[in-house]
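Minutes, structural biology subgroup

Action item carried over from last meeting: produce the structure token record for Methyltransferase type 11 domain-containing protein (Channa striata). EB confirmed the sequence was re-checked against the source entry. Recorded below for completeness.
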Amino acid sequence: MSHRLFEGKEHATSYRKYRISPSDQLIQRVLDFFEKQRSGPCELAVDVGCGSGQGTVKLARHFASVVGTDVSAAQLEEASQHANEPNITYRQCAAEELPFADGSVDLVTAMSAFHWFDRPRFLQEAHRVLKPNGCLALLNYTLAMELSYPDCCGDTLNQVCQEFYAGLNPYRSPHLGAGSVDFIGRHMRQFLIPIKSGKVCGEDPQKAASLSQDFCHRLMSVMRVSSAETEVEVAVKYFYLLARKPQEA
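Output recorded by EB:
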């Protein structure tokens, strides 16, 4: 399928290196919501579309067992290699076909992954596996990022970044929608009725890749550095939507 661009070994390695991880503060917002809704112990959390596991590991200290799921064996291999927590396991499966019994999961999360799913089927599946009062959390970051580098004008860096996004727009996957916040909100409303990275594709992926190289060179020029490995501080804005399955489902 054309939108499954994340399953190869090379992509998985890059994903592990560059994927933006949710902050501890954001994870705590999810946990605070979950704590208010639950009526029993924190037994099982399932991180769907876990990729290389950056978000999965942040759930480990709060649940007896955490399972990360993904369709990509390469992504799960990357995740397994970097997960030292004994209560984390990984399973290969589609988001719409979760290998868990009805009413067995306390928390289902999807971190920067929901846009790749068959959304109605996934929401039905999340409803099925969640316990009564179990929670669903959808998290993602926006492209409203702010770059900074010592002795460099932040406005100039951000202008280069915005021009890069504009150049990539023709290669943007239709699965990402026009805007992530509205996109997720529309589908979450479907979930509420029964029960609350950047990837590109296109006909010319080489052109999209050249845009990325041009972007890197422009940033290096503005920053007056010679190494593409120079670190830039990036402030990322996240959004999240949280839902609870009713006691009487």
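Discussion: DSSP finds seven helices and eight strands in the chain.
Next step: EB to file the record with the rest of the batch.
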